[in-house]
Amino acid sequence: MSSNPPSERPQDSPRREDSEAGDQAASPLNLILPDNDFEATWRAALEGPSEAGRDALQSLLGYLTFSSGPAAPAILKAWNRVHDEAAGGDVLSGPPPFLIMRHWLEETTEKLQSSESSAFGDVTRARTVIRVLWSKLLPAYLDFHRDLLFHLEPEILFNGLFLARCAEAVLAHVGDAATIADENELVERIISQLNDYVGYRPVAVLENRACQPYSHEFVRPIPMMIHGVGITAGPYRELIRRALKAITEAPEEILRAAAMDPDQIRELCLDPRAYDFDHPVNRRPNYHFGGWDERSIDSDGRYDRFMLRSVTLDALLCRLNETTDAPADELLDEAASVLAGTMLMASGVSGWGPGAYSSDVTLRSLMVPIANYRDEFYRWRISQIGGQHGERLLAEAETRHQPFGAARQHLNASLARSRAVQLQHVQLARIYARMGYADSAAKQADVVSAASARLMCRIDCGMTLGLRSLRSGDLPAAIQVPAASFDLIRRAIECGGLMDPWDILGFTGNFSLYPGIENTIHDSRLDELLFIIESLFGYIARVWSEAAARDDEAAYDQMDAQYREIAQWWRTFAAHTVESVDAADPWESYESARLVAQALRLWHRGGARHGDIAFWAPHAEMFDSPRAYMLVITALLERKDFIPAQALLIHWLGQADRVGLRTGASSLPRLAERWLLQLRDHLRDEPTELWPRVNKFFDYLEANAESYWSAPHFEVGDSALGNHSADDWERELASATDDLLDPEADLEDDEDIFAAAYEGMSYQDTTDDGNEGSIFDTGGDSDSVDEIETEVKRLGSRLDFLQALARMWAVGADVAITHHQFHNAPSTSPKSSSGDAESARQARQQQEQQIESLQAWARRAVKNRIGLLQLLSDVRAYKIKPAGTDKESMRTYDRRRVLRDGLMERIIETAVEMSDARRLISSALCALNGNLSSDLNEEFAEDDAGAIELFAALIAGDSELARTSFPAFVESIIQRNLLYIPLSRGGDPVKIYVARLRERVLRHLLHWMPRRGLIVETCRLIETARQMEQRNPIGAGAVTEFDGLYRAGYRSLVGSFSDSALHSEAARHGDAHAKSSDACEPSVDSRELTATDQHAISQTLIPLLEKLTEVMLGSWLAHSQTLRLSPLESVSDGPKWKRLVEFIQAFGDPLFTQGFLQLSNIRAVLHQGVESWLGRALEDGDDLLDETELMRAIEEGRIELGEAARCITLVFESLMDHHAEYQDYNSTTTQSDRGEMVYTFLDFLRLRARYERVAWNLKPIMWTHQVLVRMNLGEAALAWRESLNERIAAEAELYVKRLRELQKRYSMRMPTIADRLEERFVQPMTIDRMRALIAPAMADAEANQEHSSAFEELEFEANQLTRTPVGVGLDLPPWLSELDKEVEKIGKRNLASEIDLQDLITIPVSPLTLDELRSQLAIAASQGRRLPHMRGKSK
After folding, report:
1. CB within 8 A of 1120, min separation 6: which ones?
2. Backbone dihedral region of 711: left (phi > 0), alpha (psi from -120 to 50 degrees) or beta?
3. Where does residue 652 rank: exposed (0-12), middle (13-18), buried (19+ CB within 10 A)?
4. CA distance 1155 to 1146
5. What do you get for the CA distance between the two ends of the chain, in Å?
6. In this structure, are residues 410 and 1309 in contact, taking their beta carbons and an 8 Å threshold?
7. CB–CB of 290/339 below 8 Å?
8. Alpha-carbon distance 266 to 94, whole Å?
9. Pairing of strands 305-309, 267-271
10. What is the phi/psi pair of residue 217, to 5°?
11. Could you report the per-residue pLDDT of 102-125, keeping only the tens digit for each?
């Protein structure tokens, strides 16, 4: 079935808007479509039908003249015969057959009327029917389905049998009349009658509404075969004929098992709708193969119409063109056999009629019988084929482990490819739309046939361009968008492109694949619908606010009316009343937007007094929801009106208990961060004004935050279980204390409990077994998922606020330092002596005030940190009872555990942010004072004090002091622990907190030190981090942070080297500023470099980077050797792998089948411990494991319980770590039906693991390239890529060769694994280059540039990648995922909506000379003691 957009259709295929050309009945066809447009095979069509064809035309004319009911089989055959001749063998070559048929009918009418035949004396009725059918009905039908059938060529849709059904409908409505009074009304009724198919479509049952699918969801399926008539002309004719023959001849017992009676297929039809892989219905087993039409039931209560899907037919026929090693006729036989098998499988899901299955039948219970009769049918087919072809198929079945393996695997692979193509183009369309390139987005969407993709893209593009118009001041253009978007949303809903909103209330946002709650899945379209509705509301609110701020009365009223209309429409569906759906009340949203618009109009009419905080006081009560606050604060921030925005933020905080801190994207913490970042950027050159405003902001926050200012308490479970004596923290953490302030004064009451709960703590895991605690609590009394879920939501907003507060304190400390440095700069000192004294006095007062504020923040941070650790302990004490071994029990257990562990993760993250803020504030204090106050020294642990002093030196720009302080700091941390056991393995949350906080300290240093020119020290600190992990192992399952630390440090080193090279190039050109500057960014913008500059920098920089890589790669490789990148690395040798394979072959079924290997099941089993799970199954029994060979073997002593547990753990962990690949295995192979064959999948994973080991070792090379492309050093990046490609090409080829061997051995392609290996290690560099192009491309779009070279280059690279789709369409390809992340990142950066860790403290670059770089590199390379891997090169 063609899926070309209109611009890509064959030239001689009429566009829909041209279909009225059929009205030219008097014109000869060869005048409408000139003779030279046709191939030779079409000249016969121009010359007229054959003798048999003319007889058929006369029969049709008689039918149209005299009949008023259904057509007899003879008439249907006549329609089919005429269409066959008009098609000439190919419906898509030459003029459309349905137009030829009209011409022939009109020609025959004229001839018969002029003949002596009295029977055809009056042909008025026939002419009327012909005209209505071709000139009215067919164009109207295409227009009615302009969204749903946009992709479809009319030649495919309007075949002979389809036209026959249309004629039947027309005649039924015309009756005996020769004329029609209202043809338009008649056509509407006929279309309604024709559209009788919707497929599997669950309908909500509501108390006060009778729900049905929308009229535009129904279509008339394309008849491919009618019983007693024959098969229509077209590309599928022979395939269908052979498939039906195979079904008809199949053994009775197979047909009975499949609920298939060939004689019951009264009509075999093709679903004309585009196959949408994102639709949840396609997760219904075998749905893509077709099935019985459950709305077409005969008088005996049996289904009588069978549906096929073009996606399956096209995939089967595709193999005929792609395979050259077998005769085409044999390949067609195989395709027909597989088509027949898929039809039997599809039939088995629904049964022969509504009464086929009882209520206790489930999808799971159907799958095994379906697989059995499918395989039996295929074996029977091979026996029937016989001969050399049969012998070849038997050999193929032996090789591929399944009958018809080649055809079936090709079918699965083709379907996966189609799914991947749709996913790629849909996502790329959305990315282009968000970037602001509507035309390119539309091109990508039009590649996809599905209506949902095309309509969603148009909506995205409309709002993106509308917002750009709004930012550029074009309010009239922005006003046009809401109405157009609302129309598209309704059209998408009504044609099935978007979820039916009634299903939210009726099914709570789920989709039922089959009767029974166990067959219900989340409807992913719900998230899409909610997002697009909220986006539209947000868009209207912004335009409305802009109209109010301009006091544009007409625009204001228009937006008011549109918002009210859409809100009333959306509220009808009551999505906001469904507890499990996160949807706001649209009327409340409207009211909020209205109040905001009123407030902004008042603001405008009040003179738009910039910075007038008092103006808002009388109107503050108008803001009654987070959304209302967000809208007006956003509008004010866009106008740089910071004081009223601050006032509303503070008022919002004071009303938090009433309105909440967050609803959807409306978040006070995020807006507060945005306010502070934008204020800092806006007043960066006016630090004297900036600090007082920032300080006052924090005063307001503290005065209004009330309980949000402190750590919250856990209000679920027995809090007594969380006391610290039970956890014995003091015994484990005796050395821990690092408070900034005197604990006697502020924390006296808490000293006994919390003495150990500080950052400078060291841990000793006494068991060293990699398991820090009970990972499966057997005590406690918690049974409710709801109670923990409710508590997680309550605590979430409080933790968000504290996390944002901590980051904002750090930014505030940075502002204080900037303020201090500005006042101490020589150029700012007054000249007069009296002025000097007064200035000095004011400076001292300001510094004292800054110190007082910073100390107050630090005191609060200490208390909050302690409260958060108490909260962490209480949550840890919340026990989860053990679940049973059945599927539902494990799912419930997993859900509750994930909620609890997720909450602990958030608390840990917040505690780390709070402690980090305390340390940064202390460092700022140290920088202000010049040293760490002697009366506080005793209250800091050794490594903490050293970190603060080092931070302070870097903040102050004193590189020499930092260099002097560095050795002592290294000695204080070298014995500290950097590893931790994750929560999923029973890790201690407090130990996780300590390790992550220590990692944060190192990350700051690794980011800052290269910027201050401390190259040697950075190299040494990276190696120190590795040694910290090496010297302090904690057992199996530990999580390492070294890779993240190495990446941060190494990228910062490369960036500093590149900055220095740019600075050197600027100096070479005689830039005096560049020569004299010692702490500034390069004076030459890398985007303005000439080709000569690029070449000179590349020649200088590449040798330096190669030397840096040589120095640093040893640490990375030494670390790599300690990592287990995949569980399968433990079975890399032959004997271990052989034992695992033997275990799987012996015991894999049913343990490793798809039914059990669901993610929640695997997680629950692994968390409980496989051995414990097996033991309980042996003791208590288990539905899955009872009576299995594994249980018998354990009971009989043929295998030890521990050995079985180890093998199962290895398989489960492998599937957990490679879940995307496992989905590929399930969707593209038939081996996945059999648990004992899972080793074939694991063998592919073993190869993937070896590839990933090499890719991991190459990461520093990749990071270097990332930095180069980000800095637009194109020639240097190209040289770096080419160098890697030369060195790694041969190794990459070996992996591809091994892949081919596995594919041949197991007859599996495994696209996700194959695509990864086909990257040959270098494709990530292409992705890096594409990511670097996004920011300039988005900037060009925002500036309304007519052409963007950055986007053109990006689009070219994307087109290259889309030519070879990767994956199976279940997950985004890596390159698209990276582009999506980059677009989101740039969007957030442009809005300054979140605080990045690297932006907390401002550390300018101090460029080094090239000689200084070389000198420091030589020192780093010679430090054999510090870098053991370099000892051989120390001289």
Report:
1. 1253, 1256, 1257
2. beta
3. buried
4. 18
5. 70
6. no
7. no
8. 32
9. parallel
10. -80, -25
11. 999 998 888 887 766 555 667 788
205-206 and 209-210: which strand pairing?
antiparallel
How many Cβ atoms sit within 10 Å of the Cβ of residue 665?
13
Helix (H) or strand (E) holding 844: helix 833-876
Q: CA-CA distance, 675 to 646, in Å (whole number)?
A: 8
Q: What are the φ/ψ torsions at residue 791 (nearest 5 degrees)?
A: -70, -35
HSE value, Cβ hemisphere, 13 Å, CA-based, for 1283: 16
- In degrees and rounded to multiples of 5, residue 307 shows phi and psi of -105, 140
At 1334 the pLDDT is 93
Largest separation between any pair of C-alpha atoms in the chain: 126
Quick check: helix, strand or coil at residue 325? coil
Both tokens of 952, joined, read 């302070």
Sign of CA dihedral 20, 22, 27, 31: positive
Decide: 1037 and 771 in contact? Cβ < 8 Å. Answer: yes
The DSSP string of 1223-1268 is HHHHHH-SGGG-GGGHHHHHHHHHHHHHHHHHHHHTHHHHHHHHHH
Distance CA 412, CA 395 (A): 20
- For residue 1150, whether the previous peptide bond is cis, meaning omega lies within 30 degrees of 0, is yes
Backbone Cα Rg of the chain:
36
DSSP β-ladder status, 510-512 and 291-292 = unpaired
Instruction: State the DSSP H helix or E strand holding residue 243, giving kind and residue range, or none if neither.
Output: helix 237-249
Low-confidence ranges of the chain (pLDDT < 70): 1-46, 115-121, 175-181, 606-617, 619-620, 717-785, 823-836, 838-839, 843, 882-887, 890, 931-943, 1069-1087, 1391-1394, 1424-1435
Give just the sign of the alpha carbon dihedral 939, 941, 944, 946. Answer: positive
The amino acid sitting at 807 is: R
Closest CA to 53 of 90, 88, 22: 88
**One-letter amino acid of 127:** R
Q: Are 1240 and 1156 contacting, i.e. CB atoms less than 8 angstroms apart?
A: no
pTM: 0.80
Tokens for 641, please give them.
């009106």
Pairing between β-strand 662-663 and β-strand 520-522 as defined by DSSP bridges = unpaired
Say how many C-beta atoms besides its own lie within 10 A of residue 1245's C-beta: 22
Sign of CA dihedral 727, 731, 736, 741: positive
| pLDDT 10s digits, 941-965 | 656 788 899 999 999 889 999 999 9
Q: CA separation (Å) from 1274 to 715, 1055, 1090, 1101?
A: 57, 14, 11, 12
Residue found under tokens 């429409």: 569
Cα–Cα distances (Å) from 320 to 91, 312, 387, in that order, read 19, 14, 20
The burial of 642, by beta-carbon neighbours within 10 Å (0-12 exposed, 13-18 middle, 19 or more buried), is given as buried
SS3 content of the chain, % helix, strand, coil (to 5): 70, 5, 30
Question: Would you tell me how many other CB atoms lie within 10 Å of the CB of residue 264?
Answer: 19
Enumerate the β-bridge partners of residue 291.
Answer: 307
Residue 1294 to residue 1290: CA distance in whole angstroms: 7
Q: How far apart are CA 459 and CA 404, in angstroms?
A: 45
Give 546's contacts (C-beta < 8 A, 6+ positions apart). 470, 475, 478, 635
Tokens 């048999």 sit on residue? 52
Q: 416 with 1227: CB under 8 angstroms?
A: yes
Q: 954 near 1035, Cβ under 8 Å?
A: no
Which is nearest to 796 in space by CA: 648, 659, 667, 626? 667
Q: CA-CA distance, 810 to 1401, in Å (whole number)?
A: 7
**DSSP H or E run through 270:** strand 267-271
Burial of 768 by CB count in 10 Å (0-12 exposed, 13-18 middle, 19+ buried)? exposed
Contacts 24+ apart (CB under 8 A), 727-736: 727/873, 727/990, 729/756, 729/757, 729/990, 730/755, 730/756, 732/756, 732/763, 732/764, 733/757, 733/761, 733/762, 733/763, 735/760, 735/761, 735/762, 735/941, 736/760, 736/761, 736/762, 736/941
Q: Is 1103 exposed, middle or buried (0-12, 13-18, 19+ CB in 10 A)?
A: exposed
